[in-house]
Amino acid sequence: MAKTAIITGSARGIGAAIALRLAKDGFNIALNDVSEKSFENNDIMEKITALGVRCEKYIADVSSHEACESFVKKVREDFGSIDVLVNNAGITRDGLLLRMAEENYDDVIRINQKSVFNMTKFVGAVMLRQKSGRIVNLASVAGLYGNPGQMNYSASKGAVIAMTKTAAKELGSRGINVNAVAPGFIKTPMTDKLTDEQRDAMLAQIAMKRYGEPEEVASVVAFLCSDDAAYVTGQTIEISGGLSM
Ligand code: NAP
């Protein structure tokens, strides 16, 4: 029986690339995003179903505990099992510390960090009963090293790395591996918002002198979801073209 993967925030960007890659690897796919509008003008569902796997989309705000509970219940009813969870949904609300509005701090923590708690709790319960599963969290180099203008984002991603280790320790004995990836600068709508000055500053620090592609994040996530990574858990793999060494 084909395995099922949930990828949060997968209408576009890195999430969509991960969904497509896992579909190519034979997983049935549960797509998620915050609104129907997120799926407008994109063909991610068509691309996935063309690969011959099952694909459904679920509208849910993953920062809501209640919404995650019903979302996970529905996926379980529709697909029977949940074998992979990729906690990908995330936002930025950048600004220097002294000018950062409280709302922008709280929104980023709620969406980037609390969503990981919500989804890991409800999917973790399903995986515990199955005695198997893979969870991959999208962290960031900002969570490892900090980044000026991203106090909120760095805090959320640093927490995601700590949550990855905690979940790995709690769930490891039941056949559930939990890992994180920490991308550097990847070309997506999220990084389109940066100024040319910010991009140039980032590029100067990258050993490979180019930005990453969403597919280059997806391939590492796919490895962590594969049998080849059976003895890897609690780890954070940096995907940054050598940004920080
Ligand atoms: P993106 O292009 O902005 O895509 C993020 C997706 O998450 C969007 O489709 C967005 O939907 C969705 N989303 C936002 N809030 C949500 C919510 N509450 N519930 C469900 N879905 C929600 O971002 P990306 O660049 O692909 O980033 C994906 C992940 O990688 C994020 O966690 C990000 O922090 C991490 N990351 C990215 C980079 C990079 O360079 N791009 C680097 C390091 C880490 P709407 O926009 O329709 O609201």
Question: Which short descriptors sum up this protein?
Answer:
245 residues, alpha/beta, 15% strand, 46% helix, Rossmann fold, 7-stranded parallel beta sheet, single chain, globular, binds NADP nicotinamide-adenine-dinucleotide phosphate, 9 helices
Question: Which secondary structure elements does this structure contain, and how are they paired or packed?
Answer:
Layout: E1 4-7, H1 13-24, E2 28-33, H2 44-49, E3 55-59, H3 65-79, E4 84-87, H4 102-130, E5 133-138, H5 141-145, H6 151-171, E6 176-183, H7 189-192, H8 196-205, H9 214-224, E7 236-239
Parallel strand pairs: 1-2, 1-4, 2-3, 4-5, 5-6, 6-7
Helix pairs in contact: 1-9, 3-4, 4-6
The structure holds NADP nicotinamide-adenine-dinucleotide phosphate.
The site of NADP nicotinamide-adenine-dinucleotide phosphate (NAP) has 28 residues, from helix 1, strand 2 and helix 7.
